[in-house]
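Regression test attached.
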Amino acid sequence: MNTKNTIIIGFLWIFTANAAEAQLIERYSLDGYLGVKSTFNQKLESSGIDFMNYIDNYEEYYIDEFYLNISSHFWMKNNWEADVEIGVGSSLIPTRLDLRATKRLNQLGINFGFENRPFFIYEAELYYNVPSTSFFINHHPDLSYSYIQFDLFLFGPYTGVNYTFENERIIFRGDINAGLSFNNKEECYVTLKEKNSNYVWSEEYFINSSPALWLNPGLYFYVKLFEFNTFDIGIRFSAGYYLTQKKLTYDYIERHWTYENAEQQHMNPPAHLMHQLNADFGISIRMK
Amino acid sequence: MIRKIIIILIAISALKLITSCIFRCDCDDPEEVEFSLNTSQISTIDNAGPYPDYNTKTDSIPAGAIGFNIKLSDSTLMEKYYMVAAPKSQCRIFPYFIKGAYAWSCYCVSWEFNVRQKPEAIRLVALSDFNNEIPANTDISHLMVGRVDQSDFEGHGMYKSLSKTISYLSEERIYNSPEFSFELYLTEATTADSIQFEITFEFDDNSFITDTTQTIYPLPTPDQ
């Protein structure tokens, strides 16, 4: 995903430079902002491991995670506008991406976009860490790496509408977008050893990419503070709400005693209702 | 100007660091040493916990968690070469940045070991009744699995079947010293009060070694 992001960013940079030269872009803004997001995820019972139960699972039901984003808004010819947003989370690796084109009709606009929204699956092997069970999770430093944690990206296209109010000093924008997301494929495993026994058992998971629908209303507010000859500086605030129903289906290979003694199975866990709230605050530079 | 000088100095140092290992290891060819597997050493593994306990002091082990650590060696050469051999490599790369002084260094190997015969079969016999269905002196090799590599991440920490264990031990490879060790584990719990096993290693030159384990007093498996 990071390579893809780099390619997209490079492409956009070339596009922007060419577009500016061809005077497609009439003006643009640059924003930098710090935000916080909380994910609320429905925990569900399952007959096998359900990775969605371990999404952003630092605490039982939610997490407050900081993010740092930069974004740019372009006012273009023929009532087109475009947005590019790139962000990092606590890992400081750019994983958030939002590309959007808007056709402005009057104060209303129609959005078309593509976004990548990062989540984190955290310590899913703890599914087996039940005190009453007779198994140890094998974390032997030389034999097994039974830690199941990975980045989960939900990415895909979306469309929606927005309403913008803009005057000399303030900009207010309200969006509501809906889209289709897919998740990245992932592979991981856990090895277990029975207490008081030589018996070992492992499960190797191959998480499939599966689709989900989502809804994302959001608000944006900008107030101009300082005005210079070629640009203005102001503060910005935005907030959003993300709602989806997501399941992570997977195939898995169950092994008993030896690596070769394996059988493949499929798991179709239930869909989880998941929602995320985010709010951020930062500065915006608007080129004239 | 100063910047250019610094860059040139860094480049020269880096080049020297790299080439000092690759091109300037002035080592003599290692002496080829052939060895025979003529001695075995078997110790019991208590595998009741999350990881094997190779240093168990007790002979009372949960009945389902019995394993054996096996060392096959050339007794005539062990004293001479033990702990002094190294892999057939004249250049070692230490990946730890902190130990940067040793990042690339020459390591001259004195000996290169080639085993004369390779294991072809391993047989396990219980010298007393294993359970109600398996009487004493029955070959129970089919109840064994092995572990031959202590860094087997690809195997997810699972065992190898006995045939895979043997074929791994038979692979053409350079031995670090005139010995090698591996582990065998039982896949079934014995119901015996005390039990001893006889393990026979058969080699491709028709030689064999037979050794017996210490007497083990299996503990009944507690309710999980």
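Expected vs. actual: identical. Residues 2-287 of chain A form one domain.
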